[in-house]
Amino acid sequence: MTARKVYLAGPDVFFRNAAEVMRKKGELALEFGFSPSTLAEDDLDPAGLTPYEFGLRIGLLNERKMDESDFIIANLTPFRGISADVGTAYEVGYMRARGKPVFAYTNTARDYFTRLTEDHYPGDPLEEVEGVTRGRDGLMIENHGMIDNLMLDTAVADSGGTFVTGDVGPAGDLLGDLAAFRECLAAARAYWQAR
Amino acid sequence: MTARKVYLAGPDVFFRNAAEVMRKKGELALEFGFSPSTLAEDDLDPAGLTPYEFGLRIGLLNERKMDESDFIIANLTPFRGISADVGTAYEVGYMRARGKPVFAYTNTARDYFTRLTEDHYPGDPLEEVEGVTRGRDGLMIENHGMIDNLMLDTAVADSGGTFVTGDVGPAGDLLGDLAAFRECLAAARAYWQAR
Which residues of B touch A129 (CB under 8 A)? Predict the structure, then answer.
């Protein structure tokens, strides 16, 4: 049987050691019997392109990689704020709409409501009216016991995927730790074996 | 001709006056000849559901609304941080993968690079190596002259949509102002009239 292809999504591409991390993730995917989607370096030559044009080329290349992949494993660990990276959220939506299963992980056990109330509205009095919680700015604070915005949790749950909650602790590598990623690979292997 | 249906996406649903804003947006869409996708209240009864189950129901309902819509207008104004709301980013990816045109707007003229460097890494020395900018934490700072993460800008540009950059100024209603939304409606009308 041909190995299923996995699209590896996440802010890992912004790390200083991005190439090493993506290589490591690719190796782990192979260990679990999957073919990792990797960038074709040839397609990433910025020569002759404006920064904007180069950005478009990367975007379209990522979409082509998604189209070629059977499923996605997304690193949805909070990135530069209380929620996942928006580029990764975009890719989860893209794969979901293509009817492909979404596997995801986060490296913090603190759920969305906790991060919002403790990190974004620290010390603020919260308003509770008819079961709806709001911050001082009047904006609603989702409280569904979910890991992030409900669209992300819904995509994982309804597509048959798994959302792995890791917990690297205060001294851990919040964005880069791969234990939960490994658990996603194991869950994905079980998913495809059952098909 | 049947009116095209527009999916209205954005953090507007979290506003204290969400119902009023969505009604107003729907009225504007009608003025431009579009049928706005609106929530069916009947589908949103939380009775008998856990908060998690209710979250899933909302997520699936939003996906059904997207499937019924011909295009999306997304409010990608920065939300609780330097980037767009992740739920809205998810929806942009979803509609893009369904092959539908993506129209978007932001109410700030400050581009992604500016927001990252001024708001997220204020006062930090930035590192510049081989054309790549990084913050003190080592994370890359995208600098493509784009409005947000390159996946979002790419989706709008390549789908034939328009990304409207508004500027409400410091005293304006950053998240809620509708001038740029109106411009999206005008651009979408031109898009569909050319078809």
Answer: none
Question: Do A59 and B151 make contact, defined as CB atoms within 8 angstroms?
Answer: yes
Question: What are the helix (H) ranges across chain B?
Answer: 18-31, 51-68, 86-97, 112-115, 150-159, 179-193
Say yes or no: A169 contacts chain B, CB-CB below 8 A: no
From B177, B179, B172, B185, select the one nearest B34 (Cα to Cα). Answer: B185
d(CA A24, CA A3): 18
Q: DSSP class of residue A41? A: G
Place of tokens 């409280």: A143
Q: Where are the alpha helices (DSSP H) in A32-111?
A: 51-68, 86-97
Condensed to tens digits (0 to 9), the pLDDT of residues B55-76 reads 999 999 999 999 999 999 999 9
Distance CA B29, CA A7 (A): 37
ipTM for the predicted complex comes to 0.97
Chain A from 102 to 161: CB within 8 A of any B CB: 116, 120, 131, 134, 138-140, 142-146, 148-155, 157-158
pTM score, whole prediction: 0.97
Task: Please list, residue by residue across B82-114, b when 16 or more beta carbons sit within 10 angstroms of its beta carbon and e when fewer do.
Answer: bbbbbbbbbbbbbbbbbebbbbbbbbbebbbbe
**For chain A, how big is the Rg over CA atoms in Å?**
18
- A58 interface with B at CB cutoff 8 Å: yes
- Count interface pairs A-B at CB distance under 8 A: 187
